[in-house]
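Query structure, 305 tokens:
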């Protein structure tokens, strides 16, 4: 779901005429049945003004697509800002931008892509902003049928417009170099670098068509994701099904197929004490149902896949 969409000209005019925040507020109220607090409004006001200044460049096509607050299907996550258009090969390109108002952060040793910063009213450990942008792009690539079939290129990045970058900065520590390569982070004073990144990937406008197609794209696990999950289980003795585990597994598969055919919802509860194989069944179902083009989630009290 897109909270706001239009082309660059629409976005620039709505910002200049102080209409953008009200449009966002009203759309969230209408589509999500919730109101927006003052802190979120201020966040929009500050970050979107920075994007307005950034896009004020005649080499960025006026008919490039612009979207704000894209709610990733089947999740509670929202992408802050997207720009769509065509690359120099005339294929659809989308830039995914994670906007941050952070002013400082601390690198966390020994934890992959985790930083510490002030957010949500306190000091918290959160994903590196480049990882956030990259993970959102990866999720869309793995599950959006339109992106897969049309080979849409997704280009994630982060923009920390209040963050004064220093030499040997915490943002750039060694443990973050791989993710920064895949999703560069731009900071205060690097607006021109962000513009260059945009212009490199958005050579022509598309009148927001790529964004609208992504919004309406079917949820379908990619072949690459199917193969990756299957390979995780291949040859892994811990995940072999034994006796009644196989019976339960086949019963759930059968009922899953029935749900797809008659479009009715069913709930299956598997009971068993520790070590009886509930997790083994769940992991095998995750792999098989993904291979059958279903959107599958595995949830436990300790994690979420």
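Result returned for the query:
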């Amino acid at each position: 779901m897109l909270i706001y969409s239009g082309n660059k000209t629409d976005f620039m005019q709505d910002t200049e005429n102080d209409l953008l925040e009200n449009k966002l507020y009203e759309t969230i109220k209408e589509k999500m049945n919730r109101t927006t607090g003052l802190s979120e409004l201020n966040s929009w006001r500050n970050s979107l003004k920075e994007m307005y200044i950034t896009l004020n460049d005649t080499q960025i096509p006026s008919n490039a697509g612009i979207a704000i607050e894209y709610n990733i299907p089947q999740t509670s996550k929202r992408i802050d800002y997207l720009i769509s258009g065509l690359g120099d090969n005339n294929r659809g390109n989308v830039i995914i931008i994670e906007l941050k108002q952070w002013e400082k952060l601390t690198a966390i040793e020994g934890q992959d892509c985790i930083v510490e910063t002030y957010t949500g009213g306190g000091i918290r450990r959160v994903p590196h902003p480049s990882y956030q942008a990259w993970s959102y792009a990866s999720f869309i690539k793995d599950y959006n049928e339109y992106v897969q079939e049309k080979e849409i290129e997704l280009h994630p990045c982060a923009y920390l417009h209040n963050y004064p970058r220093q030499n040997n900065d915490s943002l750039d520590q060694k443990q973050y170099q791989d993710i920064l390569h895949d999703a560069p982070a731009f900071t205060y004073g690097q607006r021109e670098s962000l513009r260059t990144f945009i212009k490199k990937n958005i050579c022509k406008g598309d009148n927001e068509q790529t964004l609208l197609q992504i919004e309406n794209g079917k949820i379908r696990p990619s072949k690459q994701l199917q193969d990756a999950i299957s390979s995780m289980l291949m040859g892994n003795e811990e995940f072999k099904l034994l006796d009644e585990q196989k019976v339960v597994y086949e019963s759930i598969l059968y009922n899953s197929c029935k749900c797809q055919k008659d479009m009715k919802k069913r709930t299956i509860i598997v009971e068993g004490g520790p070590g009886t194989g509930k997790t083994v069944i769940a992991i095998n179902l995750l792999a098989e149902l993904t291979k059958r083009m279903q959107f599958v989630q595995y949830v436990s009290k300790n994690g979420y896949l």
